[in-house]
Design goal:
Elements (H helix, E strand, L loop, with lengths): L1 H35 L4 E10 L2 E8 L2 E7 L4 E7 L6 H4 L13 H15 L1
Antiparallel strand pairs: 1-2, 2-3, 3-4
Length: 119
């Protein structure tokens, strides 16, 4: 009887620890997500040039900059006007970090349409 009580209490304690860790990581993730995205700064486009090297177009407020990115430094290459920026780059991505990626809906539609022809 004593072993059953200790087994049940260990089970309850394990479930409680799992629940509290879930709540903690969920609240921690929300806090980190808020710090990650910015409203006044946005990377509009990025072109990789090699390992740890890229050129990017960045919007800061109402100004646009072309920057060079290397593993050890970031260099301002030019300040751009809005006319220099392609219209596609000015479109806002659905969420921060999604620049250059197709939406899941488009990818799923391509996949289902392609497989529908095979049937």
């Amino acid at each position: 009887m004593n072993s059953v009580i200790s087994l049940i209490s260990a089970l309850i304690l394990t479930v409680l620890i799992l629940y509290l860790s879930y709540i903690f990581t969920r609240s921690l993730g929300k806090g980190l997500g808020m710090k990650r995205g910015g409203t006044s700064m946005q990377m509009l486009d990025r072109l990789p040039l090699g390992q740890d090297k890229a050129v990017a177009i960045v919007r800061a407020g109402s100004r646009y900059y072309m920057i060079g990115i290397a593993s050890s430094q970031i260099t301002l290459l030019a300040e751009l006007s809005e006319e220099d920026i392609p219209k596609e780059a000015l479109e806002v991505a659905p969420f921060p970090g999604a620049e250059g990626y197709e939406s899941f809906k488009k990818i799923l539609k391509k996949y289902t349409d392609r497989n529908r022809d095979d049937v």
